[in-house]
Specification:
The protein is an alpha+beta fold. It has three helices and five strands; from the N terminus they run βααββββα. A hairpin with a 3-residue loop joins β3 and β4.
Amino acid sequence: MASTPEIFQQSFLVQQRHLDQQNHVNNVQYVQWVQDVAKAHWEARATKKQNEQYFWIVVKHEISYKQQAFLGDKILLQTYVGETSHVKSVRHVIIKNEETEKVLVEAKTTWALMDQVTKKPTKISEELKQVFTQ
């Protein structure tokens, strides 16, 4: 049975600290937002026990910068988990200007599930896969 990935969202205003010397959002900031929304999604959906047993690490980032964002822009982060294999999953993040709906960034990040005790990769169970589905 196929399951539908849950789309998790966050929004906020671009602040001065997000900008670079050209007065638009710094590319490094987008990478930080990709990581932050992934963490927020996990923390919002995982049980206390799952949070105590596991953590995620980034294996690979792929990011495409499409448009720029500026001070005061309202940003919408949308994320969902796509393909999942033995110990890895691929998370998709779309960052948009919330008012214009223009896509600013598209990212695909591969994450590995880690055991809190052994600090080694661990199998993603069916139960854990369900954390990110509707």
